[in-house]
Amino acid sequence: MQLGTLSQFLEIVRTGSVRQASEHLNIAPSAISRQIANLEHRLGVKLFERKNDGMSLTAEGAVFLKYAQRTMRDIDLARAEIDEIRGLRRGHVRLYSVEGAVASYLFPAIAEFRGQYPAVTFDVVAAGNARVIEALVRDDADIGVGFNLSANIDVRVVAKLRKEIVAVTSPRHPLADRRELSLEDLQGFEIAMLDPSFGTRRLLEKAFHNAQLVVPSAVTVNAIEMAKMFAKRGYGVAIVPGFAARQECELGELVAIPFSDVSLKRATVALCVRRGRELPRAAIAFLKLLQQRIADL
After folding, report:
1. What is the value of pTM for the model shown?
2. Which domain holds residue 109?
3. Residue range 282-293: average pLDDT?
4. Quick one: 128 and 273 in the same domain?
5. Phi, psi at residue 31, to the nearest 5°?
6. How distant is the alpha carbon of residue 244 from its chain centre?
7. 87-101: pLDDT as tens digits
């Protein structure tokens, strides 16, 4: 059985359709369908239920999934051992991270790491906390970075750093000269908030609830870059993790204002791996660098 077929099978399971798997793998849908049909023929079972809205695993497919995932993990370990023999001359690291940490934390670390190990490559996926955890548990990611993560029995936090949530505005905004804001101070202003898939939003909602305040009528966005653009253009106030707007504040494009609410000063960035997983050598080496650099956030 070819590894490419297993990869295609796993991608269909992940995305729910041949078309999306085709887009992610850059392989023609007809070629993927043919490979899966051949696999089903060899196994003598149907692995997927074909539906109008996509594909789902049959009972037999769910059994095969466990073995396919195990096989791919074993391949990763074999590659890691080969890398160990060769020295770290090659390797691949898969990262899932909350959006705000990508530019300020991961990219500088990747640049530093590749300066020493240029043959090591990276996949970086920006995702909300739920997808970061899911990717770790399913071994789609070697390393995850989350913001104010809930505890998960399958995930081990290897390093964390307390970082506050801030309001950001353009330098011309009426609140820009304030040294600190209460939640009440936001009343009457246009607010851009991240959607509930972000730990920032859930922490904010809890803070408003504890203060017996209604969450302000807001523009809800699913990307930190959109929230920052909302503030940069002078449309109102955006509420984001402080580290996510550091570069814009240094350039004078935004002003970051901390909140007086203590709970918004105690959010944490967490560097995570799946509990019990043996990481490839390149991922272990990069994880050590991330542990050293987390204080730079």
Report:
1. 0.71
2. 89-162+268-296
3. 93
4. yes
5. -65, -40
6. 14
7. 667 789 999 999 989
